[in-house]
C-alpha cells in the first residue's frame, strides 16, 4: 500500500494529528510505502535528531511505526524534504 503527503511548513498541530490518524489506518498494511514532501528540513535521519518539536514528533511516530527513510541525499537546498519511508521489515522487490 502506498500513500503520498505534502505538508506545509509549521502547519497546525491538529493537521499533523489528522495525518497521524490517517497513517494509523494505513499502517495496518504489512507493506507500507509512504512518499511525500513532509517539510521537516531540520531532521537528520542518519543521526536521528531534529531541531523542532513538530519534526521530533514526526520522527518518533515514524520510528514507533517501524518506518525507515530510504532517501539518503538532500533533495532541496541541502535538506531532505522529499522522502520515501518504508516499513522496516519490508524490502524492495
TrEMBL record:
It comes from the Eukaryota. GO terms for biological process: cell adhesion involved in heart morphogenesis; larval heart development. One of its GO terms (cellular component) is extracellular matrix. This is Uncharacterized protein. It comes from Mycteria americana.
Amino acid at each position: 500500500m502506498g500513500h503520498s503527503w505534502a505538508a506545509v511548513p509549521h502547519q497546525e498541530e491538529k493537521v499533523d494529528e489528522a495525518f497521524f490518524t490517517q497513517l494509523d489506518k494505513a499502517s495496518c498494511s504489512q507493506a507500507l510505502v509512504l512518499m511525500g514532501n513532509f517539510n521537516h528540513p531540520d531532521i537528520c535521519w542518519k543521526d536521528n535528531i531534529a531541531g523542532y518539536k513538530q519534526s521530533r514528533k514526526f520522527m518518533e511516530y515514524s520510528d514507533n511505526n517501524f518506518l525507515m527513510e530510504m532517501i539518503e541525499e538532500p533533495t532541496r537546498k541541502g535538506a531532505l524534504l522529499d522522502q520515501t519511508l518504508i516499513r522496516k521489515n519490508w524490502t524492495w522487490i
